[in-house]
Design brief:
Blueprint (H helix, E strand, L loop, with lengths): L2 E5 L2 E4 L4 E8 L7 E7 L6 E6 L5 E3 L7 E6 L4 E6 L8 E8 L14 E2 L3 E6 L1
Parallel strand pairs: 2-11
Antiparallel strand pairs: 1-3, 3-8, 4-5, 4-9, 5-6, 7-8, 9-10, 9-11
């Protein structure tokens, strides 16, 4: 059974940093497309960043230059380093995976499995 567990969220002042982690169970990790998505109150879940099996990455425009996605296949863990945080980054952040996929995720609808989410709150 595939399981994803996020951690690392919290409250931070604008300009600060957080690192999110997504720990995955199962033997699929190295052959899957993974990504981070976020959902603010009253809004749809949206794409933030993606990484594929060959470590190619993609980011939504609003986080380029501030966020970095990475994965450690030996630890079955994906990360999102978030720097220069802004109040508009406030949301619940979810990791998502599409198993046996070599592409880059781009939309929430592509994901097979989700974690439970972790809250990120950026104060002004």
């Amino acid at each position: 059974q595939v399981q994803l567990v996020e951690s690392g969220g919290g409250l931070v002042q604008a300009g600060g940093s957080l690192r999110l982690s997504c720990a995955a169970s199962g033997g699929f990790f190295s052959i899957s497309a993974m990504g981070w998505f976020r959902q603010a109150p009253g809004k749809e879940r949206e794409f933030v960043a993606a990484i594929n099996w060959s470590d190619s990455t993609d980011y939504t425009d609003s986080v380029k230059g501030r966020f970095t996605i990475a994965r450690d296949n030996a630890k079955n863990t994906m990360y999102l380093q978030m720097n220069s945080l802004k109040p508009e980054d406030t949301a619940v952040y979810y990791c998502g995976v599409k198993i046996y996929c070599r592409g880059l995720l781009k939309s929430p609808g592509e994901c097979d499995t989700w974690g439970q989410g972790t809250q990120v709150t950026v104060s002004s």
